[in-house]
Design goal:
- This is Glutamate dehydrogenase.
- Keywords: NAD, Nucleotide-binding, Oxidoreductase.
- One of its GO terms (molecular function) is glutamate dehydrogenase (NAD+) activity.
- There is one protein chain.
- This protein is α/β, with parallel strands linked by helices.
- A hairpin with a 5-residue loop joins β3 and β4.
- A 7-stranded mixed beta sheet has the order 11-10-9-8-12-13-14, with helices on both faces.
- The chain has 15 helices and 14 strands.
Length: 448
């Protein structure tokens, strides 16, 4: 059975690089994509740009804590399966660890380390008092029943124990998880503390259903943050969004909300893709109807409003905007050469690998990097956490206004840094984040 509100971000990665085997051998060794090294390389480039002090670079080069948990779950047929879960806590200098929990068959420790590090940069860039964390469980959430999914979630939460908490480490939804997952995590955690504290720990997770302590505006927040960045980019480039076109890879929470919100600004989505395949519609998809279809069916497969195409054909579709909202390592050299667009807004984390990025920049295609573009999610998660701490409930208009102000400020700061230092926006975003973290380390110094 499918999980409730399944995401559509399980996609084939960009081809991995192949290297010859030893002399005399006919084998080809496939070199794994090292996502953590990619993130660290960006860290090094930004560190050189701002002359980051070496002791800060050393501290940030590895996570503070790496947890690997093997936990048993009884399945519907009575079988007991052992699941492997991860929680990486990268840095908590600025505040509690913060980051999503991913359910996916390809979850690895190194990927979770990379994502946790990126959360550190995002929070610092957005001036949010959080540090970076990330978690995951290695399995396919679409292959289990809703009851099994709940037991996996509750058992993983229980196994994490005091390694999470509203003032220590705060999970949120990610690929393969959603608000229902967070409700189960919160309920499990609240039953692990004393009865007198049950009501004070709602902030242990964010991205909860509104009725269970979540905030209005959270579901669309990541996609909305991407839209705010695109609006600022269009002003900077004197580009009219109305009448423009977009292609979207991944039509889960981020991609679908991005398409729906942009449709109100006159942007037409002409190609979409997810784990079930790709399709095009030169006249433009009805983003609302496609979003409803994916929520009901679990993927874009079978949607009557488009023509199926191959992955290669999808990347060759001409559009003004390309929005990768799936997994990391989707745009390699081949995809970068195929893409014909003006701007890429990274709704996913790490969708563009370095080789692909080099080609895109050489072609003059602007990139709104993940560290900036998709940080609307963690920003509104922070607003949810604040509401939980204060026992408040903000209107959607209040949340939207605060998010727009925060994203607009961050975009302009990144653009200005990029101009001053003559670097691309990704290095600029990293550089700003590192400078803010460095300032605190220099003030507090090292204990003891």
């Amino acid at each position: 059975m499918k999980s409730p509100d399944p995401t559509s971000e399980t996609l084939q990665a960009a081809p991995l690089s192949a290297v010859p085997a030893a002399a005399g051998s006919s084998r080809t060794i496939v070199k794994e994509y090292d996502f953590f090294k990619v993130v660290q390389d960006y860290l090094d480039r930004a560190a050189r740009t701002i002359n980051l002090q070496e002791f800060v670079r050393t501290i940030l080069s590895q996570p503070k804590n790496e947890l690997i948990i093997n936990f048993p779950v009884k399945m519907d047929n009575g079988e007991v399966r052992l699941f492997k879960g991860y929680r990486v806590q990268h840095n908590n200098l600025l505040g509690p660890f913060k980051g999503g929990v991913r359910y996916h068959p390809s979850v690895t420790l190194d990927d979770v380390k990379a994502l946790a590090a990126m959360m550190t940069w995002k929070c610092a860039l957005m001036r949010i008092p959080y540090g970076g964390g990330k978690g995951g469980v290695k399995f396919d959430p679409h292959s289990v029943s809703k009851g099994e999914l709940q037991r996996i979630t509750r058992r993983f939460t229980h196994a994490l124990g005091e390694n999470i908490g509203p003032e220590y480490d705060i999970p949120a939804p990610d690929v393969g998880t959603n608000s229902q997952t967070m409700a189960w995590m919160m309920d499990t955690y609240s039953n692990m503390v004393g009865a007198a504290n049950k009501q004070s720990v709602k902030g242990v997770v964010t991205g909860k259903p509104v009725a269970s302590g979540g905030t209005l505006g959270r579901a669309k927040a990541t996609g909305q943050g991407c839209v705010i960045c695109l609006v600022e980019w269009s002003k900077e480039k004197n580009f009219n969004l109305e009448g423009s076109t977009m292609t979207v890879q991944g039509f889960g929470n981020v991609g679908s909300h991005l398409a729906v919100i942009l449709s109100r600004l006159g942007v037409s989505t002409v190609a979409v893709g997810d784990h079930s395949g790709y399709m095009v519609n030169p006249e433009g998809f009805n983003a609302h109807k496609l979003q409803d279809w994916v929520l009901a069916k679990g993927s874009i497969a079978g949607y009557p409003g488009g023509k199926p195409v191959t992955r290669e054909e999808f990347f060759k579709v001409k559009s003004d905007i390309f929005a990768p909202c799936a997994l990391e390592n989707q745009i390699g050299e081949a995809e970068a050469r195929s893409l014909d667009c003006k701007v890429i807004v990274e709704g996913a984390n790490g969708p563009t690998n370095p080789a692909g990025e080099k080609i895109l920049l050489e072609k003059g295609i602007d990139i709104l990097p993940d560290v900036l573009a998709n940080s609307g999610g963690v920003t509104v998660s922070y607003y949810e956490w604040v509401q939980n701490k204060r026992s408040e409930s903000w209107t959607e208009e209040e949340v939207d206004a605060k998010l727009e102000k925060a994203m607009t400020r961050a975009y302009r700061e990144v653009a200005e840094f990029a101009r001053q230092h003559k670097v691309d926006r990704r290095v600029a975003a990293y550089g700003l984040a590192l400078a803010r973290i460095e300032a605190v380390y220099k003030e507090r110094e090292i204990f003891p």
